[in-house]
Amino acid sequence: MDTLLFDLSAWSQIQITGVDRKSFLQSFCTNDINKLGSGAVCEVFIPDIKGKILGHLFVVAEDEHLTLLAVPGANETVAPHLTKYLLGVEAEVQDKTNDTGLLCLIGDNVADVVGEAVSLELNQGRKIALGGNSLLIVRVDITNFPTYLVSGSREEIEVAQQYLLEKGAPVGTDAHFERLRIEAGFPFAGVDISAANIAQEAARTDQTISFTKGCYLGQEPIARLDAMGHTNKELRGLVIEAESVSNGASVLAEEKEVGTITSVAQRGDGTSVGFAIVRAKFAKPGTSLVVTDAVGTYPATVFWPRLE
């Protein structure tokens, strides 16, 4: 896919500084971040004491701080949650969302667009010169194509965006980004997954949860569910045989509701893709379901983890 440029400046950015920054966050996230070297990226959940999802983040280890990248609105939950546990810890949590911007480049020829080689493996980051400024660029697992997030101050991102536009980078639409992330199984916390869901129900366990790290808030119910061996429901993608479907549409199996559409996007071929938390009995890829909204009823097929 040729590279597309998306403006994700509404996304949340949180910074954690101080000598205890890693050990502090280690106690409140599901993945093992203690060994992250400079430039390494780790995908995590921030759970509550019951193992329910408060936030879904990319943690970037930089030389002097940790940068947390997450979907819009995550800062309003995650930053206050972490801040209340800072007593006696040499760390500081700062919500940088209003001061920073974020660009997203998706495609196979990002180097041609940014003007220099971008040889990053998945979950790696480094500084890159873009539009005359040194910005953080990280490669993350959001779509089925090479996906890079570029972070900087609001002013730096505005300059970088103009630079990329002048170089001819095509601008992607919000609808296109939605389709790409749904097809790749990337949920939005607060939309597709929430504090109603224990971490494993997001079906990103391999990417986000370490079962060998030390203790953290919410670990016990997450570990207990792992020992049980299964969830009662999980996030799934659906290919829906309809050009347009409403968010909130019901997902049916055997004439009973087994889920609700939380995100949906048109594919441009007369079908749509969507997310729903589906009862485990009907969550196997290839399972035939039915989606119904106020307009009609449509056949649907489960896919996971990605729609190739």
From TrEMBL:
UniProt EC number: 2.1.2.10
InterPro entries from the UniProt entry: GcvT/YgfZ_C, GcvT_C, GCVT_N, TrmE/GcvT-like, YgfZ/GCV_T_CS, YgfZ/GcvT
Any GO BP: iron-sulfur cluster assembly
Location of the Aminomethyltransferase C-terminal domain: 233-302
One Pfam family matching this protein: GCV_T_C
Keywords: Methyltransferase, Transferase, Transit peptide
Enzyme class: transferase
UniProt GO molecular function: aminomethyltransferase activity; methyltransferase activity
Residue ranges of domain GCVT N-terminal in the record: 5-202
NCBIfam families associated with the record: ygfZ_signature (TIGR03317)
Protein name per the record: Aminomethyltransferase
Organism classification: Bacteria, Pseudomonadati, Planctomycetota, Planctomycetia, Planctomycetales
Gene name for this UniProt entry: gcvT_1
